[in-house]
C-alpha cells in the first residue's frame, strides 16, 4: 500500500498528514497567518515536512490558487502576495526527495466529498464559501482539473454585472459578493470600518436587518451558482462547505433561494462532511487514482 504525505497549503495555514488508503494519521499544522513571503513558506515547509522524513512514498499537495506545471498562480493574485509563481512542486521535491503531485485545494476537497458520499453522485460540484469562493467538479466520476488547472473556478463566474470589482479583475464575480471577505466589506459600509464577515454573520443570527440583507445576498448568489453549474453540467448533487457555507442556517438560505427556481435547476444540496481534512484526504485519493490509471 502506498503511503502519501499529504500537504494542504491554504491562505492562513499549512497542514500535513500521512494518508494510506484514505485514512489520515499524524496530522500536523502550522498557522501561517497572512505572511506571504517565499522564504518563510520554504522554511515552514521544511519545518513541517522534516518530521515525516522516510515515512511516505510520495507527496501530494492540495494548494490554494491555480496549479499549472507545478507552479502556483492565482486568478486573484492578491490572495497570494509574494507567492505568485511559486514553484511549489520543485520546492517540495527538493525538501523531501520524493515525487510530488500538486492540485488545487477546492478540486481536492471536491474529490474527498465525492468519495465521502460513496461515489453515489457521479456528477457533482463542491462549493466552498470561505475567505473566497472556490469550487471543484466531478463529472462522470472523474475529477475535473482542466488543461491549465483552472477547471471549477466557478467563484469567478458572474453574479451581478453591477457588482463590485473582484480581485481577479472582473466585475461582479460570485466571490466579490458571497465570500466571507465580501460579507465583511459590505458590513464595513454599514457597521463601520474593519467589520469582519464573522461579525456580520453574528449580527444576522441576532436578527439585524442590514446584516440579514448582506448574508441573504451571499446565499442567493451561491444558489444561482448552484443552478448555473447544475444546468451546465447536469449535476446530481452539490456539496456546500467552508466557514460561511457551513455556518448556522446558511445552507437553509441557499435552499430557500434555490426553491424559487424550476425543478431542473435544483440538484440534491448537501453539507460538506470532510471538514478541515478535505484537502488532505482528497489530494491523497487523487494521487491514488492517478497511479491506477
Ligand atoms: Zn473574480
TrEMBL record:
- Tagged with keyword Cytoplasm: no
Any Pfam family matching the protein: ROK
Domain of life of the source: Bacteria
SUPFAM superfamilies xref list: Actin-like ATPase domain
Answer whether the UniProt record assigns the keyword Mitochondrion to this protein: no
InterPro entries noted in UniProt: ATPase_NBD, ROK, ROK_cs
Q: Which UniProt keywords apply?
A: Carbohydrate metabolism, Kinase, Transferase
PROSITE patterns assigned: ROK (PS01125)
Q: Which biological process annotations from GO are given for this protein?
A: N-acetylneuraminate catabolic process
Q: Write the Enzyme Commission number(s) for this entry.
A: 2.7.1.60
GO MF term (any one): N-acylmannosamine kinase activity
Top EC class per UniProt?
Answer: transferase
Q: Which NCBIfam families match?
A: PRK05082.1
Annotated PANTHER family = N-ACETYLMANNOSAMINE KINASE, ROK (REPRESSOR, ORF, KINASE) FAMILY
Q: What is this protein called?
A: N-acetylmannosamine kinase
Q: Which organism is it from?
A: Photobacterium rosenbergii
Amino acid at each position: 500500500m502506498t503511503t502519501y504525505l499529504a500537504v494542504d497549503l491554504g491562505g492562513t495555514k499549512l497542514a500535513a498528514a500521512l494518508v494510506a488508503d484514505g485514512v489520515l494519521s499524524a496530522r500536523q499544522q502550522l498557522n501561517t497567518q497572512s505572511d506571504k513571503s517565499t522564504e518563510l513558506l520554504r522554511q515552514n515547509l521544511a519545518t513541517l515536512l522534516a518530521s515525516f522524513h522516510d515515512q511516505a512514498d510520495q507527496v501530494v499537495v492540495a494548494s490554494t490558487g491555480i496549479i499549472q506545471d507545478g507552479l502556483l498562480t492565482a486568478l486573484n493574485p492578491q490572495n497570494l502576495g509574494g507567492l505568485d509563481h511559486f514553484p511549489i512542486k520543485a520546492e517540495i521535491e527538493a525538501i523531501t526527495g520524493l515525487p510530488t503531485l500538486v492540485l488545487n485545494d477546492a478540486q481536492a476537497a471536491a474529490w474527498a466529498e465525492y468519495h465521502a458520499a460513496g461515489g453515489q453522485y457521479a456528477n457533482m460540484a463542491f462549493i466552498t464559501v470561505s475567505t473566497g469562493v472556490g469550487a471543484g467538479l466531478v463529472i462522470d466520476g472523474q475529477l475535473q482539473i482542466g488543461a491549465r488547472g483552472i477547471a471549477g473556478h466557478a467563484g469567478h463566474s458572474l453574479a451581478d454585472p453591477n457588482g463590485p470589482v473582484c480581485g481577479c479583475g472582473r466585475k461582479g464575480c460570485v466571490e466579490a459578493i458571497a465570500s466571507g471577505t465580501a460579507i465583511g466589506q459590505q458590513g464595513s459600509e454599514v457597521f463601520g470600518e474593519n467589520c469582519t464577515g464573522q461579525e456580520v454573520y453574528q449580527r444576522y443570527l441576532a436578527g439585524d436587518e442590514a446584516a440579514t440583507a448582506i448574508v441573504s445576498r451571499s446565499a442567493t448568489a451561491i444558489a444561482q451558482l448552484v443552478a448555473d453549474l447544475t444546468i451546465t453540467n447536469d449535476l446530481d448533487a452539490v456539496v456546500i462547505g467552508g466557514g460561511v457555507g457551513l455556518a448556522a442556517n446558511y445552507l437553509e438560505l441557499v435552499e430557500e433561494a434555490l426553491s424559487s427556481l424550476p425543478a431542473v435547476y435544483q440538484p440534491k444540496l448537501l453539507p460538506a462532511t470532510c471538514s478541515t481534512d478535505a484537502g488532505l484526504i482528497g489530494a491523497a485519493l487523487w494521487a491514488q487514482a492517478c497511479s491506477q490509471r
